[in-house]
Specification:
One of its GO terms (molecular function) is aminopeptidase activity. This is M61 glycyl aminopeptidase. By secondary structure, the chain is an alpha+beta fold. It is built from 13 helices and 22 strands. The strands form 5 sheets. The protein has a 7-stranded mixed sheet. The structure holds zinc ion.
């Protein structure tokens, strides 16, 4: 788990001395898939890594090696083709026992039996690897070993080649080359690892949305719903691009498969994976569509705008707020559904504060995201609502949270500079033209109760309730100002 940190840290720190211009290539052979294995070959420069290489793992008590448990038949040879002695150091790290260093040819098998393990501790099997009737899903973490260097982003020029069974294809978020089944990893090594792929005889559909290339990899049972997915993704991508004043990347892969377990999603750098339990239709869209939109918005907030330290309240809470308001603005959900979603958020917030007596600040709650889910997602979403209203009140509804996000994205997203809470406060001050620090002191780093009733009233909504039972309705005889703020936020 600790290794994952490298993916986000030190983005701007460039160790030109260790920057590698040589290309790093991975060959993935899927022709032995019936023997439950993928054979991988690579040649890694381990000079800076002092002969160590590793794979990012998600260890658990039952499986302390995480993804590395499925790596077998490791063979390492030096430049002269001489096999090397390798020591496994634990936590997915290996060391070559040699006094000289340089390039090494590394070969191994990935046994495709990840399904047998429980991955709930790291977000479920859809964040690791799984098998369907059509093929195999992997994250980069579950497939690739890489040099153990401090800044993975220093390794550029990464390419991946697939050798596939007949009628199979590889759906990846990477750029195709002119060779068949051959890809260049856009950007750097982090985009090899922090992404997902699907390899098989599944259905693939490519759509162009302006600058965007959206690639769907759908399990056969999902194929019938391709238009449902497109009808959701198109307006969500368009409206999110508008909010942030631009789009971060050009190509996205979306893998959608049926699940017997649950409906869930996970976003990576330029891809996301979604599993859906139950019927896919307009009714169930409130559920799977929310997840799909949430994961898409993460491509901006979470995978382009990246915090320096833990700011889960902003990453998850603001993403959920945007998900709800953009689904309302694009008329994918109606007003009543919007109310219901917010009622749920408030209910969970009240339960956490009143019944569970959780006194953590919204920011602190992110240190233990799973346990404090309601505060991270729900609390964060209520902070987003409060901030939106405060900015609108201060500017006569001329500015809103959209403007804050746009500035933040310009300054920190497009430039790859990790943001901090102080940066959000500075931009909130600029956008609203007033000192917003007390707001953050009260509701983000402090534990003051977010005055949800008052905030909703500002946008012409009435909140009634007793303890955790809450109901939202439209205010009777709203003022012009209330209606304008509501229109600014929901477009309704
Ligand atoms: Zn999320």
């Amino acid at each position: 788990m600790k290794k994952k940190f490298f993916l986000f840290a030190g983005i701007l720190i460039s160790f030109s001395s260790i920057a590698q211009n040589k290309s790093t290539n991975y060959n993935l052979d899927f022709t032995k898939k019936d023997q439950n294995l993928v054979h991988i070959k690579t040649d890694l420069d381990l000079t800076v890594a002092k002969n160590r290489f590793f794979m990012i793992t998600h260890p658990s008590q039952n499986n302390p090696d995480g993804e590395a448990k499925f790596l077998k038949n490791l063979v390492v040879k030096n430049q002269k083709g001489k096999p090397q002695i390798i020591n496994y150091l634990g936590e997915g790290t290996w060391e070559i026992q040699s006094t000289t260093t340089g390039n090494y040819a590394i070969e191994y098998d990935i046994i495709t039996e990840h399904d047998l393990e429980n991955w709930d501790h790291c977000g479920g099997y859809d964040e690791v690897a799984y098998k369907t009737q059509e093929g195999l899903f992997f994250t980069g973490y579950s497939l690739f070993v890489v040099p153990d260097i401090p800044v993975l982003g220093d390794i550029k020029n990464v390419s991946v080649h697939f050798t596939l069974p007949k009628n199979w294809k590889a759906s990846t978020p990477w750029n195709k080359t002119t060779k068949q089944n051959d890809f260049i990893v856009n950007n750097d090594l982090r985009f090899l690892l922090n992404n997902c792929i699907f390899v098989g005889n599944h259905y693939e559909k490519e759509i162009k949305l302006g600058d965007f290339e959206l690639l769907f990899a759908l399990g056969n049972s999902m194929k019938a719903n391709e238009n449902d997915f497109i009808e959701l993704m198109k307006p969500i991508i368009e409206s999110t691009t508008q909010v942030f004043g631009g789009a971060p990347k050009k190509k996205y892969l979306i893998v959608v498969n049926e699940s017997k377990v649950m409906t869930d999603g996970s976003a990576f750098r330029t891809s996301f994976s979604q599993i859906i339990k139950g019927k896919v239709n307009k009714n169930s869209r409130t559920n799977w569509g929310h997840i799909m939109a949430h994961e898409t918005i993460h491509l901006w907030n979470g995978h382009t705008l990246i915090p320096k330290e833990q700011e889960e309240w902003f990453k998850e809470g603001f993403t959920d707020y945007l998900t709800n308001i953009l689904l309302a603005r694009t008329k994918i959900i109606d007003e009543a559904t919007f109310y219901k979603r917010f009622e749920n958020v408030i209910t969970k917030y009240n339960i956490t504060r009143d019944l569970l007596q959780n006194k953590l600040s919204i920011q602190e709650s992110g240190n233990n995201k799973d346990q404090n889910r309601y505060l991270v997602y729900g609390g964060g979403e209520l902070v987003a609502l409060g901030l939106d209203i405060e900015i609108r009140k201060a500017t006569g509804n001329q500015k809103g949270l959209d403007d804050l996000l746009k500035s933040l994205f310009t300054e920190f997203g497009k430039t790859n500079i990790p943001y901090e809470l102080t940066n959000i406060i500075t931009i909130a001050n600029q956008v609203s033209g007033k000192n917003m620090k007390p707001f953050f002191d009260d509701y983000v780093t402090g534990t003051k109760r977010i005055p949800v009733t008052e905030y909703l009233a500002e946008m012409g909504l009435q909140l009634d309730g007793f303890l955790e039972d809450v109901y939202i309705s439209a205010t009777e005889n709203p003022t012009q100002q209330q209606l304008q703020i509501k229109k600014g936020i929901l477009g309704l």
